[in-house]
Write a structure and sequence with these properties.
Two copies of one chain form a homodimer. With 385 residues, the first copy, chain A, is of the alpha/beta class. Helix content of chain A is 46%, strand content 11%. The radius of gyration of chain A is 20 Å and the shape is globular. Chains A, B: One of its GO terms (biological process) is tRNA modification.
Chain lengths: 385, 385
């Protein structure tokens, strides 16, 4: 049986840390196929990705990924548990046997922790304290029942993957890799050849040098415009909040606990996104949760639509090389339950089409001068290098 | 009994032609009070007014108007028949006895024509030809039954006033005044001291000289920013069309005959408003009708909301002098059926308040750098000059 390694990534943008991880996978696991499920144009921290999904696919293919499949917005812009569950559903369809992910403590056995959490009484795990974030309450629970906490973002995500694996009854080999070279410092500021994606985006936006932190292909693609930032889209969010009815906003995914009034009020006076976020921030919600809410709002994504998208998943192929294409060919000959999309037809995009809302969401980028993101686009093909 | 003269105006902007009309009213009719019902921030041709309602109120007061009351969006952005009907409802409440309006042929007896039209069989007057505009079909009817046509915009409007007067059973003296000095040419290009508002707006936008066409107060106010144009708001309209669902758009006022699909499709490719309008234009709809539809859409005004606004009318006072204030005082002591608003309280503006949707519509201007348009604003007071 072949070994298919899978990575769940945003590549926002693809940098030297990502390249190191891919090389390590080749070295340690010798996979037959290396598959990446990559967030499309919208990422988990509630932002439009810096460059579009096609540019980021090019970066991944140039670094040796065999197959890139899109993680659509209904999955990519979600709290960790839903993000992980939906990503693993796609990995399962793609025949992935081994999951590699970055972790602050790779010695942790995530699957064992997840099994222990399953045994915690249900009522204890229903978080009702409106003054604290989900993560805080989860950790209080872990501390109480298991005697430790998982406070780092990638610990939380690793645990979510393990929980999803159990939930889907999907036996998957877990390979947490230490995120190399990342210190407290270069998470926020560039330093040497390895820096966090956040630090690199900040440098790019500020016009500072970042070339040594990314592979040559990323560099060449990142030097092209357009780039996308919340600052560009905030006037649209503000407009939407100022003109929407309470009922319109009430229907938006995750718009609960009266948040719509808070958002509408902040929009009256806040003329930039940073100021807006500060006005709506409370202890109850993380910055990421609020940015995601802002993204759902500007994209007009309702609870009903998000549910429906999750019910009608698909595999949208963004790119491959010969190995990836061959793997896809084999998958299609088996009994896949999800449709494989290599060409976005009008039928997929029309009102009843399974991609309708995802295509509509991507249209936001047109307002930032993006080229068409779906219709007529075929998977990118990477020749042997 | 006192003579109260009324004018229905947009003053977009207030120019020498308007000044001439007011002087003629004083000279010919010697009114005790001169009342103007003025469109708020949105005008009948489906645009945001060049400058806001407060600036335009200042212009009118400086020219000697005694009382300025707002014609809210549910009335100001409508086809001629509804525009006229709703404006006359306000004039009736304001105790107006004499209506003065511009006309290309003041010798026409509009009330007599309106009475004749009332006698035309109902089924003949139900226009069903989807290839032609309302105006074209109305004129075919007039030609057939009365033997003449009313093709000029102000003839149509005058007739609409007369029809509204009959419909409301509101006996009103009609004074059509010849619009002086206007030729075919200066409708579109500035020429001398009298030019059309359209020509003046075009000149202002193009940065050409226009000072001699407007009174000094208008000039001083027009030299200040911000100004509002569709070009500023088109990105918001485009965003809205690209992210709204078919159901969202179907609910918009006047969005019928499948227009939402046409608008959505045009928004994908059209990057400016002019190009967008050309893409959606057909023989069936006039430019004004389509611009109004665009305005309803960008303001997210549904059929239900427009109906509700019409059912809950009010008199929002924008400005007065001592005479106007005194007149308002007398009116309030009588049994007015509509509330008089001289201070926009939070209660009027909250979700159930009668001004809620009108205030929300005005918020569009905040995105064009306008100051707050309603809360905390009191009527402007013009001292004797």
């Amino acid at each position: 049986m072949s070994r298919v390694c899978g990575v769940i990534a945003e590549y926002n943008p693809f940098h030297n840390g990502h390249l190191w991880q891919l090389k390590e996978i080749r070295r340690r696991l010798q996979p037959d196929v290396l598959v990446v499920v990559m967030s499309g144009n919208f990422v988990q921290r509630g932002e439009v990705a810096l460059v579009d999904k096609w540019q980021r696919t090019k970066m991944a293919l140039a670094a040796g990924v065999d197959l890139v499949v899109e993680l659509p917005i209904y999955a990519s812009v979600q709290p960790a548990d839903i993000f992980a569950l939906e990503a693993l559903r796609l990995l399962q369809q793609l025949g992935v046997t081994d999951l590699v992910f970055g972790s602050e403590n790779p010695e942790l056995d995530y699957l064992t922790v997840a099994r222990k959490i399953q045994k915690i009484p249900r009522q204890a795990a229903a978080f009702q304290d409106y003054r604290q974030t989900y993560a805080t309450q989860l950790n209080q629970l872990l501390e109480r029942y298991l005697g430790f906490q998982l406070t780092k973002p990638n610990q939380m995500l690793g645990l979510a993957y393990a929980q999803a694996s159990l939930q889907l009854n999907y036996p998957l080999n877990f390979h947490p890799y230490l995120r190399t070279g990342l210190t407290e410092h270069n998470q926020v500021t560039l330093q040497g050849e390895i820096s966090s994606a956040t630090a690199i985006r900040t440098a790019i936006q500020a016009g500072r040098a970042y070339q040594e932190t990314v592979p040559a292909t990323s560099w060449a693609l990142l030097e092209q415009k357009p780039h996308y930032y919340w600052s560009q889209f905030y006037p649209l969010l503000r407009y939407r909040l100022l003109t929407a009815t309470a009922a319109d906003l009430q229907a938006i995914y995750q718009m609960n606990e009266g948040l719509q009034y808070k958002l509408q009020q902040a929009a009256v006076s806040a003329t930039d996104f940073t100021n807006f976020l500060y006005q709506i921030k409370s202890k109850r919600f993380t910055w990421a949760r609020l940015r995601r809410l802002c993204l759902y709002t500007v994209l007009n994504l309702t609870t009903e639509q998000m549910q429906e998208m999750r019910m009608r998943a698909y595999l949208h192929v963004l790119g491959f090389n010969q190995v990836g294409q061959q793997h896809l060919h084999v998958l299609k000959s088996q009994n896949l339950t999800l449709p494989v999309i290599t060409k976005v037809t009008q039928k997929l995009g029309n009102r009843q089409g399974i991609m309708a809302r995802a295509i509509q969401a991507d249209r936001l980028l047109l307002l930032g001068q993006a080229p068409e993101q779906n219709f007529g686009r075929r998977p990118l093909y990477q020749r042997e290098v």
